[in-house]
Amino acid sequence: MMETRIQRGRRSWPAWATLALPALLCATGVGQTIRRVDPSAQGPVHNGNSWPTAFLTLQDALDQAPAAGDEIWVAAGTYMPSVEHCVVTNCMTMSEHKTFLLPDGVGIYGGFLGNAPGGGETLRSQRDPERNVTILSGDLLGDDDPADSGTLDDNAVHVVTADSVSDTTVLSGFTITAGHAKGIGCGANPNECPDDPDNFAGGLLVYAGSGQTSSPQITRCVFIDNTAPFGGGATAILWLNVTAGPPTRFVNCDFLDNSVKGTDTAEGCAACIAGLRLAASRVPQPLPKGGFPSVP
User: Domains in the chain: how many in total?
Assistant: First the structure.
């Protein structure tokens, strides 16, 4: 049994680091739709057009099939995925395959107050992800117990999935936690098929099928307490038969207390990554294989 862990640390987001994605930080343009999400919205309608009429769940907003260039603003709270998605055609679809599937070209932003006192934000720049913590959780049944690892078995295999999306796809301002990758796509024993994507990326799976690329931009996110048996407890970037493409970027992100527990020591890493750029993200120095070293 091997375990690799990212050390807990304090976040530090230098002002210069935000320059890495200048185009993503500007105001929403003409013709773009903003959909809002807030579990406390009173309605009576919930169409996402304003904070009082916000969708009650993030999945409700995703179900509206937002178009490229649209944005989803999410108020502080805890959200769990409810729609199943497999990145490969031969996987066994199960409830644990529930995931937040990122729509191509759409920006999803957490850290808003929404309907809370002092909220009602009208500009993206008014959000504060550090104060208004917005959680995407894989604890589907709400029963996780740190003292009982068996309570993780029904958690989401990947809390978030980016399946062949372009580099205009943005996830920003979220805490991603309680993902538990476990290779359920190929049987009870993950060692039977180590290349199965379900063996990787408890927090965020970035996947591209043969001949495709997947390059989401991940900013101001915290990956904490996610696990996987073979690699990428927090995240893994898996491209099939592709040697070049736009990089996935992690800007101002934290990787804290993610772990890998499996037998494949060559792939064991809290974040298995290649073809990406890190800017002011708190992680140890990458190893040649794209993993991160074990720390006590």
Answer: 1
Q: What is the pTM of this model?
A: 0.81
Pairwise CA distance, residues 260 & 157, whole Å: 13
Residue 59 and residue 47: Cα distance in Å, rounded? 13
pLDDT tens digits, residue range 111-153? 999 999 999 999 999 999 999 999 999 998 888 777 667 777 7
Domain containing 114 equals 2-9+69-279
Answer yes or no: is 201 within a domain: yes
Separation of alpha carbons 179 and 202, rounded Å: 4
Q: At which residue do the structure tokens 């375990």 appear?
A: 3
SS3 readout for 59-98: HHHHCCCCCCCCEEEEECEEECCCCECCCCCCCCCCHHHE
Q: How far apart are CA 157 and CA 204, in angstroms?
A: 9
Q: For residues 246 and 193, what is the distance between their CA atoms, to the nearest angstrom? A: 28
**Are the C-beta atoms of 87 and 207 separated by less than 8 Å?**
yes
